[in-house]
Amino acid sequence: MVVSRFSLCLCLVLEVLLQNHLSVAVTVSYDHRALKLDGQRRMLVSGSIHYPRSTPLMWPGLIAKAKEGGLDVIQTYVFWNGHEPTRGVYNYAGRYNLPKFIRLVYEAGMYVNLRIGPYVCAEWNSGGFPAWLRFIPGIEFRTDNEPFKNETQRFVNHLVRKLKREKLFAWQGGPIIMAQIENEYGNIDASYGEAGQRYLNWIANMAVATNTSVPWIMCQQPEAPQLVINTCNGFYCDGWRPNSEDKPAFWTENWTGWFQSWGGGAPTRPVQDIAFSVARFFEKGGSFMNYYMYHGGTNFERTGVESVTTSYDYDAPIDEYGDVRQPKWGHLKDLHAALKLCEPALVEVDTVPTGISLGPNQEAHVYQSSSGTCAAFLASWDTNDSLVTFQGQPYDLPAWSVSILPDCKSVVFNTAKVGAQSVIMTMQGAVPVTNWVSYHEPLGPWGSVFSTNGLLEQIATTKDTTDYLWYMTNVQVAESDVRNISAQATLVMSSLRDAAHTFVNGFYTGTVNANGYEARQPISLRPGSNNITVLSMTMGLQGYGPFLENEKAGIQYGVRIEDLPSGTIELGGSTWTYQVGLQGESKQLFEVNGSLTAEWNTISEVSDQNFLFWIKTRFDMPAGNGSIALDLSSMGKGVVWVNGVNLGRYWSSFTAQRDGCDASCDYRGSYTQSKCLTKCNQPSQNWYHIPRQWLLPKNNFIVLFEEKGGNPKDISIATRMPQQICSHISQSHPFPFSLTSWTKRDNLTSTLLRAPLTLECAEGQQISRICFASYGTPSGDCEGFVLSSCHANTSYDVLTKACVGRQKCSVPIVSSIFGDDPCPGLSKSLAATAECS
Ligand SMILES: *[C@@H]1O[C@H](CO)[C@@H](O)[C@H](O)[C@H]1NC(C)=O
Ligand SMILES: *[C@@H]1O[C@H](CO)[C@@H](O)[C@H](O)[C@H]1NC(C)=O
Ligand SMILES: *[C@@H]1O[C@H](CO)[C@@H](O)[C@H](O)[C@H]1NC(C)=O
Ligand SMILES: *[C@@H]1O[C@H](CO)[C@@H](O)[C@H](O)[C@H]1NC(C)=O
Ligand SMILES: *[C@@H]1O[C@H](CO)[C@@H](O)[C@H](O)[C@H]1NC(C)=O
Ligand SMILES: *[C@@H]1O[C@H](CO)[C@@H](O)[C@H](O)[C@H]1NC(C)=O
Ligand SMILES: *[C@@H]1O[C@H](CO)[C@@H](O)[C@H](O)[C@H]1NC(C)=O
Ligand SMILES: *[C@@H]1O[C@H](CO)[C@@H](O)[C@H](O)[C@H]1NC(C)=O
Ligand SMILES: *[C@@H]1O[C@H](CO)[C@@H](O)[C@H](O)[C@H]1NC(C)=O
Ligand SMILES: CC(=O)N[C@H]1CO[C@H](CO)[C@@H](O)[C@@H]1O
């Protein structure tokens, strides 16, 4: 008690100091070991949150959860195409209010690592390049090309000037301590040869010359010039070293999961493996680590890159909706607390120690400073548990794990032993969205059309103002090719990006999804004249690879009709008529006023040709406090708007591959994004996030453009709440948070408290019922615990008394609380499952 009250005071003092610290100028420098703030080396934990992937009202909550989760730094890219949608016209409104986002991070007492681009990857449309950039004559992206360099320099200078005016850099008292120029250029620079190297040097010098007075980094760039720090991206970066002895080891992207594609399973990364990779990185000399992503969020509007789902959840510690993902968030929070206890020793030691072998697949790193501080890491990359001897003492070392010893004696944390509770979040209280009315998008020309002989490339034609481009032509079919009522043939598009709906003589013949490959669609023709209509769609522009300015989309490489008795009819050279975009887009049917310009029919009157239609209705905000999402599993493919805001593309009819999912995901062994895949053979995305900020209590206006057909009557809206929470902790589980006031002079062994079992419902909810409780040696996991012969029969009553009716409860794991020791001599644990309501 005394200890924790003291530590609380100390925390408050530190908090005040930190706040003051930030309000005055901080000089940022670095040496071979770490970033230095006012001359002090720091071990920093950072996490990526991309401001346009959430809303300004979500930002404070996300940042507070990051702070509580033990982060020091928020990292974000800067999205050029969001800030300069038209050349010379800058946008910092709403989700693009970057200065506001940075100030909120500052107010939370954290720092910012700003990755300015110009190219950002980020699974973001066009890697962040504005659409107009590719139409500047003579431009070549990301190489020694004058038009590109001019535009890049203009934007970077503009941005840095703006942030300086807002006093957001560390030397001005702001939170920005580090900036990045370019991004993963090392992955593509070979394509540009000498010009690429000239560009690399130019852009590094250009960035440094903006005088931000903070260090500049370049990730995934082994050839980075001396004046910038090259950094590592990957699932593991332990042992990675920059290209100079003078630079520290920074890890800019530690992938907490992976992004999801339409038609792909949902990637997940076990938290034990993330914690292992982070601990290994600091163990082997790393000093700045960033989680990519800490909160992924949503690809609203048309911001997502080619083929990536609207959800950018990333299996991150804070989920798409802004709720903590447990136990991932909590386990990493415990890890950060343990690392903080080691920070004094880690920063004092100048030379990263070499590993001491503890076995064939086990080693230790000891940071012993001259002043007496000592921190140690014991690591095992074996797939079996082991028992090792370190400095004469025995230590259990679970498979594929790192134990952290801030005094070189006591284990305060092991990456494989999860103490944080698990939370199963579900969509609850689904309410149907009713009273839909519909409007048919005309098939083909509705406005100003134009014709050419031959095929046009889609991006050059639409300027990326819309996903949709109509291609229309006419083909004569000989009587002899039509042996009976209709000739079966195949419409072949040599290359199609990304997908298309095809129509012959006004009838829908199918949807092809080709992602740049050949697309084949069976069709029926009649003798004489036939109308061929293709609605071609981009699903986001390309965001990765060299020569992005040459990207091509649509069906520009040739079209023909195959499999007719007389052979093949080439259509590539025919007269094609084009219509850019949809009539509904031009009428702005997604806005209340725009929707009044169309005549809508009740849904029962929707004809059997139920493709390409707009539907609209109104709905009330659901009750409760949870995040809100729309269930579109009954729909096909399209776009959804609420109160005029584009929530993104949906494609519920695209199911993930049948195979490749991992029923039992084993955290042991090297992770790749195809390991621990979930949701095989299910729609890639059913639920679409509607941020509360965009909703009114009543009468919200919702519009869908549905391309393929679906059943609007099954659309519903629900809130996301914890359904079940559970935890399983052994009686020896250490509790690093008991040690906030620990100094190297204390005896850690006697100060270290043991963790209680903690259950916590969402704010506004209570624990309504204990479903399982066992103090003893229960087995199983949160999906289903199992009693063993060692079980205290008071467990259920103790947990019920301590927890039911409360939002949060903590139960110490000691026999005295449970009446008697159910199995003296055995090591025991406490497992519990509860419901929130
Ligand atoms: C690039 O900028 C320089 C300096 O402002 C100018 O002289 C040059 O004409 C510009 N080049 C292009 C291609 O815009
Ligand atoms: C950066 O600082 C140098 C030296 O003080 C100065 O010459 C230069 O104009 C500054 N550049 C910018 C963009 O402020
Ligand atoms: C690892 O454990 C498994 C069983 O858990 C055993 O079959 C295997 O032999 C062990 N491997 C080593 C190297 O000890
Ligand atoms: C119609 O012609 C197609 C080939 O063009 C053939 O496959 C099909 O069997 C014919 N149907 C009838 C009813 O003869
Ligand atoms: C083909 O399209 C044109 C123009 O949209 C239309 O006038 C014509 O009636 C259509 N012909 C057929 C056979 O559907
Ligand atoms: C919609 O129309 C009304 C009435 O003409 C007008 O007052 C309002 O400003 C319009 N709203 C928008 C968003 O254009
Ligand atoms: C929402 O949360 C507030 C407190 O944050 C609580 O008072 C209220 O009861 C909650 N409402 C519901 C419906 O859960
Ligand atoms: C640290 O505390 C433990 C437990 O109270 C005790 O056994 C040990 O002797 C102490 N060590 C030192 C160096 O004081
Ligand atoms: C629990 O076990 C003790 C003896 O082991 C027994 O006396 C008691 O009645 C049991 N209580 C319950 C609630 O089953
Ligand atoms: C540095 C690092 O670990 N890079 C890895 C990142 O992940 C990719 C994809 O799994 C690997 O190919 C890299 O080696």
UniProtKB/TrEMBL annotation:
The keyword Signal applies. Belongs to the glycosyl hydrolase 35 family. PANTHER family: BETA-GALACTOSIDASE RELATED. Pfam families: BetaGal_gal-bd, GHD, Glyco_hydro_35, SUEL_Lectin. This is Beta-galactosidase. Coiled coil: none annotated. It is an enzyme of class 3 (hydrolase). Residues 1-25 form the signal peptide. It catalyses: Hydrolysis of terminal non-reducing beta-D-galactose residues in beta-D-galactosides. The gene is LOC112287151. CDD domains: Gal_Rha_Lectin_BGal (cd22842). Its EC number is 3.2.1.23. One of its GO terms (molecular function) is carbohydrate binding. SUPFAM superfamilies: (Trans)glycosidases (SSF51445), Galactose-binding domain-like (SSF49785). Keywords: Glycosidase, Hydrolase, Signal. GO terms for biological process: carbohydrate metabolic process. Residues 751-837 form the SUEL-type lectin domain.
